[in-house]
Amino acid sequence: MRFDLKGYFSLSDDASKFKDDIKEFVTNINEKVLKKDDAEKSACIDDFRVEKNKFYIHITSGRYYRAHNALLQIKNMLSKKLGKKHHVGVRDIKIEDYKIEFELEKKALDPISIPFAKVETKAKQAVIILQDVSEEFLRKNYIDRMITLVQEKVQNQYYEGKGEFWKLIWESKEKKPVWSKDPTEEMNKLEWLKQGPTKGKWFYRPQITAIFRAMEEIAINEVLKPLGFKEIIESHMVPFDIWLKTGHMEGMPGEFYYIAEPASRDVEKWQKFIDLTKITKEIPLDELMKNLSIPSAGICYAQCPVIYWSFKGKTISEKSLPVLIYDKTANSARYESGGRHGIERVDEFHRIEPIYIGTREQLLDLREKLLERYKHVFNNLLDLDWRMAWVTPWYMQQAGKTDEKESKDCGTIDFEAYMPYRGSRKKSEWLEFQNLSILGDKYIKAFNIKAQKSNLWSGCSGIGLERWTIVFLAQKGIDPKNWPKGFRKYLNELPDGIEFM
Ligand code: SER
Ligand code: ZN
To answer: Does the residue 211 lie in any domain?
Structure first.
């Protein structure tokens, strides 16, 4: 790795008078501060010159003590040196030209571009070329992140087009489906639900609502309560700084529903909007935009980020471990584009999300217990045709990465079910109706969560009510007579619907 930086310090006065002092300073720094035994750990002032109140400098370095970090350190030392003896201050740093050369793991397949710099790649070599860089830019660590971003973009070129990671863990016996119709279509005909009022949303009438609530009760009574999970209630409006920490902000900015606050609730400021609305009976959108703030939050995408936020900076007592909680009130919103279908792929959905924080051992043990409870529900109560597979961890998918899986301890298990209306059991695509993850210390670190003694890990599991329901109905039909006994203990008959003429 090679860093090659050309820039200058602006000084408060002409320093050409004491060139000799500066020369001595440079020699000294080169010998005593920048030079190390290992070239990768060294930096060097290759060249310098003083012109009036500008001190031009050319620094090269290896991987560990990067030229821009050397520059910042030299600035401090120079301030001391010139200040004490000559009463000259160092005002500003300007980098005119900065070239960073580094090795790629694999060669880039296509040209790479990133903000703030030009990138050139040749074989397994990349060069980032920056011009006109400020001190602030250096101090904020942008450079290091730009190098990482180039490496990540090259990596991603290899993932594109590759299938997702998927490895079967377990599958149920084949079950004979009751029918092979698309449940949403059938329920639509029967007026159990209604699409809308906007894209990917549904209005659920009493019959299907009763089924959702039965599913919810099953999840709570058969899985969560027996394992000691307790309910919490969170906000479903998620400020950006939370998503910045979880990685969602860079992973799926195109999938959020954004929330804009009013710029003011002062009626006077809204008067024109009100008057225009009264006269035109249309919404004056331009006028509306004037009265809105830029979004700074979005609607819940997954429930866990806000739960982690609630533990931010806290030290959890050993006696509260593992922390086992769940939220069932925050609705999730995801902007789907082409993929919407029935109630299984929607923009707004209802989930219960248990999350768990504890030691590695506690969480591995909990995973076994959760799997056992889930199996009990899907086998004994819902009698599903389903399977489990290791998949790319959800936080990687949600950070825009694909073909990876963590170690054996960490990662995501997807639960998938056969959807008879989609075609043959072997060839058709099964529906993911739930997931379960252990995520190591990723979010523990991101939110600086601690325990008295133990090292903490965390994880979560997404229980989608729409998904549980559609999978069940796709296999068992919508007539309660055909439903398995286990489920009928929770919902034996449907409430009367509303009759329309
Ligand atoms: N956070 C996980 C997900 O988004 C589980 O809810 O799928
Ligand atoms: Zn989660």
So the answer is: yes
Residues in the 5 Å CB sphere of ion ligand 2: 302, 304, 460
On the question of pLDDT at 501 being above 70, the answer is yes
Ligand 2 center–CA 81 separation, angstroms? 54
Q: Nearest C-alpha to atom 1 of ligand 1 is from which residue?
A: 302
Instruction: Give dist(CA 480, CA 94) in Å, integer.
Output: 74
Query: 406 pLDDT exceeds 90?
Result: no
Angle between helices 465-476 and 206-218 (to 10 degrees): 110
**SS3 state of residue 397:** helix
Give the pLDDT band (50/70/90) at residue 339.
Answer: confident
Residues 319 and 411: beta-carbon distance below 8 Å: no
E strand segments, 261-409: 297-299, 315-316, 323-327, 331-333, 348-358, 386-391
pLDDT tens by residue, 191-207: 999 999 999 999 999 99
With cut-offs at 50, 70 and 90, classify the pLDDT of residue 338: confident
* Residue nearest ligand 1's atom 5 by CA: 462
Structural domain count of the chain: 2
The span from the CA of 182 to the CA of 475, in Å, is 10
Q: Determine what percent of the chain falls in helix, strand and coil, rounding each to the nearest 5.
A: 40, 25, 35
CB of 338 closer than 8 Å to CB of 242: no
Q: Do residue 204 and residue 345 come from a single domain? A: yes
Task: Establish whether residue 394 lines the binding site of ligand 1, counting it when its CB lies within 6 angstroms of any ligand atom.
Answer: yes
Domain that holds residue 121: 2-157
Which tens digits make up the pLDDT trace of 365-402?
Answer: 999 999 999 999 999 999 999 999 999 888 877 776 65
Is 41 within 8 Å of 1 (Cβ atoms)? no
**Tell me, what's the pLDDT at 397?**
74
For residue 322, cis peptide bond before it (omega within 30 degrees of 0): yes
Decide which of 119, 134, 157 is a domain's last residue. Answer: 157
Q: Is 462 in the pocket of ligand 1 (CB under 6 A)?
A: yes
Are 210 and 94 in a shared domain? no
The amino acid sitting at 289 is: M
Question: Is the Cβ–Cβ distance between 189 and 207 less than 8 Å?
Answer: no
Strand, helix or coil for residue 347: coil
